[in-house]
Design a protein that fits this description.
The chain is an all-alpha fold and 206 residues long. Helices cover 66% and strands 0% of the residues.
């Protein structure tokens, strides 16, 4: 058995120096650049393969011991979120950041909360909603009071409630005291329950 092992090692060394050596795996940046056009293709069927390949690459970066690579990949993805990227690709990139993103991508995603495209805004909101970094909660906390549309305010409040961060209680209490009934109802119905704070405590703060 040992001879087969040694032969395998020797063969690999010879192969590496020959014209038959396998091509090196692309870096994440190269993979992103290669797949991005397909990820954003107009035809849905044309997107499937590149989207799945990219999703798998992102999934692998979420593995233990890959923190530095994951963070760098998220920074690279964040740079592609702008309007120069096709909309289907922007959405797919946001979905991946929703799984593996942390503090390194919060600013780029939060900027999309003001995007002209409503669907992009919604996906940016979902991405921040699922981001465990405290910076994500801070960005969401800053938005409800400046959101002009009550429907968008409600969506922001729902995301804060989903996160359940005690830091959101004060802002939700202020919104609960506001004049807009839909916003106040959303603030009152959200669960920011922790061992020390709950919906009841939100009402008590008003």
């Amino acid at each position: 058995m040992e001879c087969f092992k040694n032969f395998g090692i020797a063969f690999a060394v010879v192969l590496a120096g020959s014209s038959f050596a396998p091509a090196e795996e692309p870096t994440f940046k190269e993979l992103l650049d290669q797949l991005l056009p397909g990820i954003g293709a107009e035809n849905i069927l044309d997107r499937e393969d590149p989207q799945q390949k990219f999703q798998q690459a992102c999934f692998e970066l979420g593995s233990p011991g890959m923190e530095a690579q994951r963070a760098e990949a998220c920074r690279l993805i964040a740079r592609k979120l702008g309007p120069k990227t096709a909309k289907p690709a922007r959405i797919w990139l946001l979905k991946q950041l929703g799984h593996i993103g942390r503090g390194e991508c919060v600013d780029a995603v939060a900027a999309l909360l003001d995007d002209e495209d409503g669907e992009i805004r919604q996906w940016a909101l979902r991405t921040l909603e699922n981001n465990p970094a405290p910076e994500a909660n801070a960005k969401l906390l800053a938005k409800p009071e400046t959101a002009g549309d009550s429907g968008w305010q409600v969506a922001l409040i729902n995301s804060l409630g989903f996160r359940g961060d005690p830091a959101s209680v004060t802002v939700l209490a202020e919104l609960l005291a506001g004049a807009d009934e839909a916003v106040a109802t959303a603030a009152a119905s959200n669960d920011t329950a922790t061992p020390i704070q709950s919906n009841a405590s939100i009402v008590a703060l008003v």
